[in-house]
């Protein structure tokens, strides 16, 4: 069984309201400058405020300036972008939340890139048929769903002896589960995934793509540092530092951030001996040979996204994303079954 997770962007709210308004007003100004560069002097000064209301006022002024210049406003390239800006402003004035997706959450691809949307955790057999899938919000970690994917795949009648995945699946619980169920786990160790004896797994989750922890509010750590003694066989700590300014205004700060604190950190133990068996296995030729099959699921993710529109959500909400996932996976499995039937003839 090969496992992986793929992100799907929400079709809504991929930018903040202010960013959305700023983008549309900028498009209008650029179209105007291409016609008459002297119009730069007539537009109001850009706002430096973070308030949406201030950006709305600026957009209204931009609209007013252009409408006074009738000759420019009638030019199709300007008129099209001006109408878009006017519609966006009207939507916000009426209190519409057309760009909001109530279930979409921030997911991190790397330490510097993120998206708002969902994540689909996928299991696939060696014949490239998807045997199980779990659709979650975008901030969930990959490894947490491995055991459920195994059980779901076994319920379809699949007999599993080996599970192949990336470093996101090599947490302590998954290694123990594989050992208890006589499964080979072909997943490279990451020294910072182990939660040790901490009991905050639901509050802080490790994002293996970014190499950082993310809190339950979806905020990613801004830096990390290793602390502890240099003595051998002594546990060290990897400490992750969060933006305390975000913590101060976070609606989920109760029990997490202490009022007045100048910093917010989360530390995990780096175990030196706990994963010795897994480390020995990942250095073996057998591990390296089996790990080569992981590309198959990456190709399947690419097929879902590029041929079946799975890169962007079609509907709003988690239920809509689950429906889209079911339909898309059914389609790619059906195509694969037909291919296998042709090859068998």
Q: Total helix count?
A: 11
Helix content: 40-55%
Structural class per helix/strand content? alpha+beta
Instruction: Give the number of DSSP strands.
Output: 11
Strand content: 15-25%
Can you tell me the residue ranges where pLDDT is under 50 for at least 5 consecutive residues? 193-199
Using the CA coordinates, give the radius of gyration: 25 Å
Mean pLDDT: 84
Shape: globular
Order of helices and strands: EHHHHEEEHEHEEEEEHEHHHH
How is the main sheet built?
4 strands, antiparallel
Distance between the termini: 26 Å
Description:
This protein has helices at 17-35, 52-68, 70-73, 76-93, 146-155, 172-180, 244-249, 276-282, 285-291, 295-308, 318-344; strands at residues 2-9, 105-108, 114-124, 130-137, 162-164, 184-186, 204-207, 212-215, 223-227, 236-242, 264-270. Among the domains are: 17-93, no CATH class; 194-272, no CATH class. Helix 2 packs antiparallel against helix 4 and helix 10 (295-308) packs across helix 11. Strands 1, 2, 3 and 4 form a four-stranded antiparallel β-sheet that branches. Strands 9-10-11 form a three-stranded antiparallel β-sheet. It has a two-stranded parallel ribbon with strand order 5-6. The chain is of the alpha+beta class. The two termini are 26 Å apart. The chain is built from eleven helices and eleven strands. The model is unreliable at 193-199 (pLDDT under 50).
Strand and helix layout:
Blueprint: E1 2-9, H1 17-35, H2 52-68, H3 70-73, H4 76-93, E2 105-108, E3 114-124, E4 130-137, H5 146-155, E5 162-164, H6 172-180, E6 184-186, E7 204-207, E8 212-215, E9 223-227, E10 236-242, H7 244-249, E11 264-270, H8 276-282, H9 285-291, H10 295-308, H11 318-344
Parallel strand pairs: 5-6
Antiparallel strand pairs: 1-3, 2-3, 3-4, 7-8, 9-10, 10-11
Helix pairs in contact: 1-2, 1-4, 2-4, 10-11
């Amino acid at each position: 069984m090969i496992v992986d997770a793929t992100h799907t962007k929400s079709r809504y709210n991929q930018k903040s309201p202010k960013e959305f308004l700023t983008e549309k007003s900028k498009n209008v100004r650029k179209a105007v400058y291409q016609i008459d560069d002297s119009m730069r002097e007539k537009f109001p000064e850009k706002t430096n405020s973070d308030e949406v209301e201030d950006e709305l006022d600026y957009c209204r002024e931009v609209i007013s300036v252009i409408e006074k210049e009738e000759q420019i406003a009638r030019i199709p390239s300007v008129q099209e972008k001006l109408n878009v800006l006017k519609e966006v402003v009207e939507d916000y004035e009426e209190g519409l939340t057309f760009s909001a997706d109530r279930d979409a959450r921030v997911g991190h691809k790397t330490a510097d890139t993120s998206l708002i949307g969902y994540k689909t955790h996928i299991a696939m057999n060696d014949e490239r048929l998807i045997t199980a899938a779990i659709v979650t919000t975008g901030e969930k970690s990959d490894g947490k769903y491995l055991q459920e994917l195994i059980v779901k795949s076994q319920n379809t009648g699949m007999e599993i002896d080996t599970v192949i995945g990336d470093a996101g699946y090599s947490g302590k619980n998954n290694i123990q589960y594989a050992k208890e169920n006589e499964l080979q786990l072909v997943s490279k160790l990451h020294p910072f995934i182990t939660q040790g004896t901490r009991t905050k797994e639901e509050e802080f989750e490790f994002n293996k793509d970014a190499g950082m922890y993310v809190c339950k509010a979806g905020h990613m750590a801004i830096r990390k540092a290793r602390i502890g003694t240099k003595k051998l066989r002594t546990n060290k700590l990897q400490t992750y530092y969060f933006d305390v300014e975000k913590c101060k205004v976070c609606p989920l700060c109760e029990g997490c951030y202490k009022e007045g604190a100048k910093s917010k950190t989360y530390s995990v133990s780096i175990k030196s001996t706990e994963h010795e068996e897994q480390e020995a296995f990942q250095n073996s030729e057998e591990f390296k040979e089996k790990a080569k099959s992981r590309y198959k699921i990456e190709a399947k993710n690419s097929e879902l996204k590029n041929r079946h529109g799975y890169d962007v959500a079609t509907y709003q909400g988690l239920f809509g994303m689950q429906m889209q996932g079911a339909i898309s996976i059914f389609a790619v499995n059906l195509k694969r079954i037909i291919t296998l039937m042709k090859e068998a003839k």
